[in-house]
């Protein structure tokens, strides 16, 4: 496995060996390098190695420096993060809470290190899907940071990014945008912090939030600018550059620019595989986006093979119920459906929907995307009454939750019109298609693929109105632009 992080890990291993030979294993200089080796292992996805190295660092520092020494507590936080990375969330939470107690006793609550522990704990509650505990804790921590530190402080920015991510998961997108915008503007004006990884994470997060708010042009502008500046200063092979390229590819898919999405995701997938390996979470995200872009441009065969591989790797590297696994499996089901394997597609979609209903509930965007996909699968099988039920279910909820003119709401409404056409209720189909076209022209503009596709379909049905229009003549010709939103993962770092 080649790449920047692999080279960094090999170099750090050499430094550990040299320091061990000259100073001994339990020397502070050796332990500093050993901690860096744990960080490098974590970035590469070598989680068991990271846990081994950071536990050794912690035990040795505790022996040499004592439990309450800042370096020992930093190592202890690293142990917690490594446990989380290996999937032992409960143990990770326990260790982070112990670090927080010690830091509070030593330095008080409004101390930089203590507040870092609080943010780490909020993050673990997020991983445990307990947003009711994660969000208030992150809000409390940010409030204390604001009273102690300036708005551009690195740790404040980190806290803001964490809280915005929690708002995003609760689908409080407007609230997340309002939180991020002043911090993003402040960091952008500071040349010293513009290229800091926290600023990059902030800009990426804001770009994704804008895409969720259907502010895709703003998202594209923001992410393209970030990608350009990072490429200029970090080089095209930087992992941060390629991760942002994935985010941009996701926005391109929402904008209907599928060729651009394919170009960005293909480049990112190759680079991330070289830097992080084929089974790293970020590599799998890029390959899943690549498969989704191929599916959108109609290359179902290549998309099928790529998504099938991505699903298998996701299930091995992550867990079956991980959001990234579920999104990739849903895209794979859509490919199976387009290839004619509708029974297999239905089975996969039913499994996904069951897990999403349990984890997120019926109003979450990921759940609604799967409900919409069920409608498409039934329509593909010419089961138009069932398709109408699923499309209507997704449309009614989306209309209430995200508004009648949102791109995803309009896609659900489009599906309903297609189902009516399949049922030979051409009058109702034309009525809905006209309604959708007006909303798309206003919300998306005349150049968006969804608008153009809808306009062509409406013209075709209106021309054929008055003829005997059978299901195979109209409904099976109706294409559905767009697809489910993409969930992008975040790289972990050793907690401090």
Question: What are the key terms here?
Answer:
496 residues, mainly alpha, elongated, disordered C terminus
Textual characterization of the structure:
The protein has 496 residues and is an all-alpha fold. It has a domain at 410-483. 77% of the residues lie in helices and 0% in strands. It is built from 23 helices and no strands. It has helices at 4-23, 28-43, 47-65, 70-85, 89-107, 112-127, 131-148, 154-169, 173-188, 197-212, 216-234, 239-255, 258-276, 281-296, 300-317, 323-338, 342-359, 365-380, 384-401, 407-422, 426-443, 449-464, 471-474. α12 runs parallel beside α14 and α19 (384-401) runs antiparallel to α20. The chain is elongated and about 85 Å long.
């Amino acid at each position: 496995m080649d790449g920047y992080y692999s080279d960094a890990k090999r170099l750090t291993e050499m430094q550990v060996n040299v320091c061990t030979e000259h100073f001994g294993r339990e020397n502070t200089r050796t332990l500093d390098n050993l901690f860096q080796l744990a960080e490098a292992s974590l970035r590469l996805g070598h989680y068991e190695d990271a846990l081994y190295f950071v536990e050794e660092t912690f035990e040795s520092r505790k022996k040499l420096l004592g439990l309450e020494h800042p370096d020992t507590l930093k190592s202890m936080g690293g142990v917690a993060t490594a446990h989380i990375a290996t999937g032992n969330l409960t143990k990770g939470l326990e260790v982070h809470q112990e670090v927080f107690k010690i830091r509070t006793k030593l330095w008080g609550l409004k101390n930089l290190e203590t507040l870092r522990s609080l943010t780490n704990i909020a993050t673990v509650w997020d991983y445990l899907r307990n947003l009711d505990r994660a969000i208030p804790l992150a809000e409390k921590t940010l409030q204390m940071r604001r009273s102690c530190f300036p708005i551009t402080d690195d740790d404040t920015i980190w806290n803001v990014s964490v809280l915005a991510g929690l708002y995003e998961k609760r689908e409080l997108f407007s609230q997340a945008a309002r939180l991020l915008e002043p911090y993003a503007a402040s960091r952008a004006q500071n040349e010293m912090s513009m290229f800091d990884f926290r600023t990059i994470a902030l800009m990426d997060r804001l770009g994704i939030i804008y895409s969720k708010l259907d502010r895709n042009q703003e998202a594209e502008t923001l992410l393209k600018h970030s990608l350009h500046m990072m490429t200029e200063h970090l080089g095209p092979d930087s992992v941060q550059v390629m991760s942002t390229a994935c985010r941009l590819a996701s926005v391109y898919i929402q904008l209907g620019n599928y060729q651009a999405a394919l170009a960005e995701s293909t480049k990112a997938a190759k680079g991330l595989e070289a830097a992080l390996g084929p089974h790293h979470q970020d590599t799998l995200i890029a390959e899943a986006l690549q498969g989704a872009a191929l599916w959108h441009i109609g290359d179902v065969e290549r998309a099928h093979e790529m998504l099938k591989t991505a699903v298998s790797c996701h299930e091995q590297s992550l867990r079956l119920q991980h959001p990234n696994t579920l999104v990739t499996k849903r895209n794979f089901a859509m490919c199976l459906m387009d290839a004619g394997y509708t029974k297999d597609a239905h089975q996969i979609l039913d499994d996904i929907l069951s897990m999403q209903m349990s984890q997120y509930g019926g109003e979450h965007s990921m759940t609604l995307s799967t409900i919409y996909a069920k409608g498409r699968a039934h329509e593909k099988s010419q089961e138009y009454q069932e398709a109408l039920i699923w499309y209507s279910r997704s449309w009614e909820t989306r209309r209430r939750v995200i508004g009648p003119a949102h791109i995803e709401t309009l896609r659900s409404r489009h599906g309903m019109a297609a189902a009516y056409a399949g049922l030979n209720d051409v009058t109702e189909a034309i009525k809905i298609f006209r309604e959708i076209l007006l909303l798309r022209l206003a919300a998306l503009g005349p150049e968006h693929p969804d608008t153009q596709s809808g306009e062509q379909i409406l013209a075709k049905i209106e021309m054929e109105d008055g003829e005997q229009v059978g299901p195979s003549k109209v409904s099976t010709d109706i294409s559905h632009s767009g697809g489910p939103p993409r969930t992008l993962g975040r790289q972990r770092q050793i907690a401090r």
